[in-house]
Amino acid sequence: MKVMEIGPEKMGILPSDPEQGGISGAIVFGKDYRPNADGIKVYLNGDRDLNDILGRVETAGGKVVQEKTQITPQIGYMAVFQDTEGNMINLHSHA
Questions:
Q1: Mind listing the pLDDT tens digit for each residue in 40-82?
Q2: Is 61 in the same domain as 27?
Q3: Quick one: 74 and 28 in the same domain?
Q4: DSSP string, 13-78
């Protein structure tokens, strides 16, 4: 992740590989932003297997809220964890 400061806000730019068709995004910290579990839902690409990511959540101080669960065979899988600041992070993968 590349960190940038734009005015009073700090942004963590999420990397992507345009040649592989990846998408990018950013995590933004600002004076008036408050982490919470009731905010917007963001789904991040969990790559090949969500269990790889979920296996690192608690070690990093987070909490797994929903284990890897199949949505449908066509859509794939999802999981949810809460980060150390209380935000809910949703993950998606096709396998």
A1: 777 888 878 899 999 999 999 999 999 999 999 999 999 999 9
A2: no
A3: no
A4: EEP--GGGT---EEEEE-TT----TTS---EEE--S-HHHHHHHHTTTT-EEEEEEEEEETTTEEE
